[in-house]
Write a structure and sequence with these properties.
Length: 209
């Protein structure tokens, strides 16, 4: 359910008004559902990227994820993802707090990254590798978030450099928005936009991202 402060979808860039798109699927995105294991992992083209860097436990940490994404070329002509951005990517999907990511989570991340990348390309019309603050605000609204001007100003201040937002920072912003919204929504049982936090629970959720 989408309402003020929540996103109607995390990858829905079709131009629909916030909250009017299809429902968000568990673990997935509006228009970009989570992957389902309907075929062996070895038959997946992304399996090669993943297994090249994954440890014996079949998972990747932030440094391994950074190497994997760099080798895959998903950043295109933009700069590779920073280690800090890779850390919050893992935190977004690390539901058991292991600090690592399995193959299914990697595929879910891949879907989100491609959606965010395509939207960034759309708004980066001069191909400078950056977007302006008002374009970031528009992108956030297109993802279904209804945020106050004060919150949007704080986000721009956090993720912009000299008034411009680079691709890596744009993705970091998208990841953190989704992760924090998920954290809040899981505790908002009545879906009223109000949650009572235990201090320790608040710290666990926010410090991990």
């Amino acid at each position: 359910m989408a309402y003020p402060g929540y996103g109607g979808g995390f990858g829905n860039f079709s131009g629909q008004m916030p909250g009017t798109g299809p429902p968000v699927l568990p673990g997935g995105y509006s228009g970009y559902p989570a992957y389902v294991n309907s075929y062996p992992s070895a038959g997946d083209p992304m399996w090669t990227y993943f297994t090249a860097v994954a440890g014996q436990d079949g998972e990747v940490d932030a440094e391994e994820l950074q190497k994997c994404l760099t080798q895959s070329g998903i950043s295109g002509t933009y700069s590779p993802f920073s280690l800090e951005t890779c850390r919050i990517m893992i935190a977004m999907l690390d539901r058991n707090y292991t600090g690592k990511m399995g193959f299914n989570e990697f595929k879910e991340l891949w879907t989100a990254l491609n959606a965010w990348k395509q939207h960034f390309i759309t708004i980066d019309q001069d191909r400078s590798g950056t977007v302006e603050h008002h374009e970031l605000n528009q992108a956030i609204a297109a993802m279904g978030y209804r945020l106050s001007p004060q919150t949007l100003a704080a986000i721009v201040k956090r993720y912009s450099k000299n008034g411009r937002i680079f691709f890596d920072d744009y993705v970091a912003c998208c990841v953190k928005l989704r992760a924090l919204t998920d954290f809040f929504q899981r505790r908002d049982h009545l879906q009223q936009g109000v949650v009572n936090f235990i201090y320790d629970d608040f710290l666990q959720g926010t410090m991990a991202i």
